[in-house]
Amino acid sequence: ERKYSYLLQQWLQAAASESDYREAAARLHEVFGFPLVANVPQRLTQAVGAAVDGYYAQAAAPAAAAEGTHLAVTADGKGVRLQRPRAASDDPHPRRGKGEKRGLKKEAIVTVDYSFDPVPRTPAEMVDLCMRGRTAAACQQRRDQRQQRRAEGLPEPRAPQQPHVRGTLAGKEAAFESLAHRLHRRDPEGRKRLVVLLDGAAALETQLRARLEAHGLLARVEAFIVDLWHVSEYLWEAGTALFGETHPERNRWVEDQLRALLHGRVGRVIGGLRQRVTKGRLRPAQRRALDKAITYFRNHRHMMAYHTYLARGYPIATGVVEGACNSLVNDRMEQSGMRWSVTGAEAMLQQRAVKHNGDWEDFWAYYMAAERRRLYPHTAKVAA
Questions:
Q1: How far apart are CA 259 and CA 14, in angstroms?
Q2: What is the DSSP secondary structure assignment for residue 94, as one 8-state letter?
Q3: pTM for the whole thing?
Q4: From its phi and psi, is residue 216 left (phi > 0), alpha (psi between -120 and 50) or beta?
Q5: Tens of pLDDT along 94-139?
Q6: What is the pLDDT at residue 95?
Q7: Which one of 106, 129, 152, 380 has the minimum C-beta count within 10 Å?
Q8: Angle at 110 between CA 109 and CA 112, to 5 degrees
């Protein structure tokens, strides 16, 4: 359909998925001496992005032998800067008003599903990790254990196996609908138990619960877990408000509260904070910080049974999806001065997901075959 070969399109889109369209065109110009304008990869991105759903619909599920015993799902949102609509010619206020920000943002919902093998941990291990209190001997022991596992061909404890990343600007319901279909394809017999990891955003939990229930998956979820690092941020903020950033009592207080949370004593932590609010002589800023932590812990108490999660060997952090947000969205779409149309941003998210999942070569074989069938249906039928 186009004057560019599929191989040239593949090279061009590989460059465009990592850098600015102009830079991608310039890179191929430098290699081949063939001039390309920036809107060539831009147009191709929309065509390529539109084929991604079809590719994954027919793609095989991960090999069962490479899967862990449990499935984990996690999601997060990341804003994408959009182009502002052009002002009408009769707009009496073409310049930004007071407090009006430059550019608009639309949330991209990033989802990740992966399998893992549970390995239990103790609250004391997690306290040492969070407080950076591990001794040199403990660090060396951990390195030795990693080397031993690698020598035996075993993955890291709770390591994500066969992670699959997707992102979309179509909203939470669409993102979680796709996620539910992936879970069915990944575990068609429904034998694996599910663990859900979130950062505490209520809208994410509500929508994800609804989609999992609609697909008959909610009964298989063993735990909805709020990310421990987000929880610890509220403790640090409260500790700083109470003692200041440099006071040694702050670290001891945070460690005590963290230890209580990891032993399942969320009510005790909330009660202690409330007691400080009601009986302490606090400044308004201190009171606000403590009230903020109390509200967060109370709202997410049902997701903070860390003593159970650790004993069962579950992951309790959302680093997988946070890393995916950075690599899928930020690294390409938040570069200096970039503004996107919704259509263009959605196409780029789809294209980058293919690269992120390691499916680039296989996808292009599918894309070329699909294009041939579309353009030359009679020839494709005879060849088949």
A1: 47
A2: -
A3: 0.89
A4: left
A5: 555 554 455 589 999 999 999 999 999 999 999 988 887 666 776 7
A6: 59
A7: 152
A8: 145
